[in-house]
Amino acid sequence: MNSVVFHIDTDDSVRLSKAFFSAKNLLEAYKDDGIQIVFIANGDGVKLFTKDRENSLKDEMVNLHKKGVKFMVSQNALRETHTALDNVLEFVKIVPSGIVEMVNLSKAGYQYIKA
User: Fold this and answer.
1) Distance (Å, rounded) from C-alpha 14 to C-alpha 12?
2) Domain ranges in the chain?
3) CATH node for 2-114
4) N or C: which end of the chain has fewer CB within 10 A?
């Protein structure tokens, strides 16, 4: 099975939108073979995955999540950006360290894509 991890480290909804477009293309291209897609946010990127964020991309995130796409944010980055844990969207997994999670996924065969 194909596996990719998208890395988000900036508070840039335009870049995230483009990454979502790429994820949708991957889901379509590999619908027969299967694909695992993970988005990991660290740095200021964690701000894009919060409940109080006025973000038109939330609906896209929910739709991608329903198709099996996983979303993760770094707890270290949440602390660094003074973002409360309970402000993270419900379907987003909080991992201790985004960079460590990316290394682990890379070891597991995930292809890295900088968003």
Assistant:
1) 5
2) 2-114
3) 3.40.1260.10
4) N
